[in-house]
Amino acid sequence: MNTAGEPPILEARNLVKTFPGQAGTRAVDDVSFTVGRGEALGLVGESGSGKSTTARCVAGLVRPDSGRVLIGGQDVTRARGRALRATRRRVQMVFQDPYSSLNPRMTVAELVGEGLYVHGIEPDRARRRDRTVQILETVGLGAEHLDRYPRSFSGGQRQRIAIARALAVGPDLLICDEPVASLDVSVQAQVLDLFCDLREKLGLALLFIAHDLAVVHHLCGRVAVMNSGRVVELGGREQVYTAPEHPYTRALLDAVPVPDPAAERARAGALRPVPAHHDPEETR
């Protein structure tokens, strides 16, 4: 969390984003939130709620129509050149699909070490290789993996490589766009525990996008709920999960499966309908 007088690592102010052909519908509609140093904020909602578009606006992959993104108190919404490169070093992204986010023609050493070279952190090849080993060890891999290609790894291992690549440049904020959604359930918990360890050991801030409320509850101290491009509820984890104020949040919680079949059947009649939405960026 922030110390007194310290600006948040991330501040999104009144972000708006529309896409052509959507009849003026806003994929992101006046969205504001902050993420403090070492904090994990969960951004949750159905597919099409606008959460992934919001993440891409924050990461600089999509330019918002209006609004501002501040990193460490500096407005980077229209950053160019050196300022943009500095921002990209401070903010890194981990994507949902580790199969498509890693270049299959690059070895692990090249994938993780590329950022060290591009940002001028370690231009010497031998020292860069040593530094890459240290980063891999941080995510539970090692030197024996350096010269292998992504195709030789499992999904969980590939996501660890993607996380190592993001960590290589020493970011303040990781934006995680459904990073465990494509993994087996048994592997999801391991990757979530890794994110918890990284946040505690490195002081990383996390903006964690998910539709699985159980995943967010495990990792995040605060939760922002999105519906139709807007943040409809924002608060501490326990407050949002135990005493939700917005009907949409209650509908999401009602839809979470209950392990007891009898309890699930008893609850089924009380479930509220959840409207469907479409955000073109969610499917990109």
Automatic annotation (TrEMBL):
Q: Where are the residues of the annotated region Disordered?
A: 263-284
The alphabetized list of GO BP terms reads:
peptide transport; transmembrane transport
What's the name of the protein? Answer: Oligopeptide transport system ATP-binding protein
The scientific name of the source species is: Nocardiopsis flavescens
Q: Which InterPro entries match?
A: AAA+_ATPase (IPR003593), ABC_transp_ATP-bind (IPR050319), ABC_transporter-like_ATP-bd (IPR003439), ABC_transporter-like_CS (IPR017871), Oligopep_ABC_C (IPR013563), P-loop_NTPase (IPR027417)
Limits of the ABC transporter domain: 10-253
PROSITE patterns given in the database record: ABC_TRANSPORTER_1, ABC_TRANSPORTER_2
Domain of life of the source: Bacteria
The text of the family note is:
Belongs to the ABC transporter superfamily.
Give this protein's Gene Ontology molecular function annotations.
ATP binding; ATP hydrolysis activity
Per its UniProt record, what PANTHER family does this chain match?
D,D-DIPEPTIDE TRANSPORT ATP-BINDING PROTEIN DDPF-RELATED (PTHR43776:SF7), TRANSPORT ATP-BINDING PROTEIN (PTHR43776)
What are the protein's UniProt keywords?
ATP-binding, Nucleotide-binding, Transport
Upper classification of the organism: Bacteria, Bacillati, Actinomycetota, Actinomycetes, Streptosporangiales
